[in-house]
Amino acid sequence: MNRGEKQAIFFISDLHIGLQDEKSELLKMENLERLFAIIKAEGRSLYMLGDIMDYWMEFRHLIPKGFTRLICLLTDLVRHNVEVVYVAGNHDFYLGRYFDDELGIKTLYGVNELLYNGRKFIFAHGDGLGKGDYGCKFFARMVRNRFNLALLSGFHPDLAIGLMKMLSQLSRKHKQVDRVFEINRLLSVAESLSVEKDFDYFVCGHNHVKGISELSGGKSRYVNLGTWIDGTLPYGVFDHGVFQLREL
Ligand SMILES: [Mn+2]
What we know:
It is a single chain. The chain is α/β, with parallel strands linked by helices. The chain has a single domain, classed as Metallo-dependent phosphatases (Purple Acid Phosphatase, chain A, domain 2, 4-Layer Sandwich), CATH 3.60.21.10. It has 7 helices and 11 strands. It has helices at 22-42, 68-79, 98-103, 134-144, 146-153, 157-177, 179-196; strands spanning 8-12, 43-48, 83-87, 106-108, 112-116, 119-123, 201-204, 211-214, 221-224, 234-239, 242-247. The longest helix has 21 residues, at 22-42. It starts with 7 loop residues before the first strand and ends with a strand. Manganese (II) ion is lined by residues 50-51, 89-91, 125, 127, 206.
């Protein structure tokens, strides 16, 4: 089956692979394999909207251990002619060139747009947008900074990746403090964006609160993909003109 016959676009975010205990991580990968089987059968594209891996750091000649099965599953999807797009989150904030150059996966940052079958999607991970979320913005500026990254990649990889895991924990602690605020922040970002421009769907993750809601104008929708670390397995599907949040 080639990409032309398959119509559905799938979305996932906030799997935080590598964060949980061994048993949960194993189960997560088995569930991901089940989802990818569905995508292979029905999907033309998979959009991964950030925090898929809980941390990532790559060097000129090295990539971290702990993501082998994910990489195998992604490679399999690409070989089955599924277009895979990976938007960086605040945990997997710098994806380097490995995904693009060796896996055939397109990496993106920030806010992006997609026109598909006459619908306009605006998609992002969701960190650092709108007013507030200053912790995330500061964090992103610090770690995405080329100089700081170069500094970090000059360390021994075990030390650099250790520091990266620590930064990932710090990012999480900050987020817990602002949880209530965070839940409304992305929705209001989508609201104000819908006043400025036309779009059908604003799709994001980040705050781990899944849901679809209609925005005030009645024309556009806000979609949050939720997370896989709270015992649920949500994913988004756009097929035949309809966007749905499903549970695996
Ligand atoms: Mn996030």
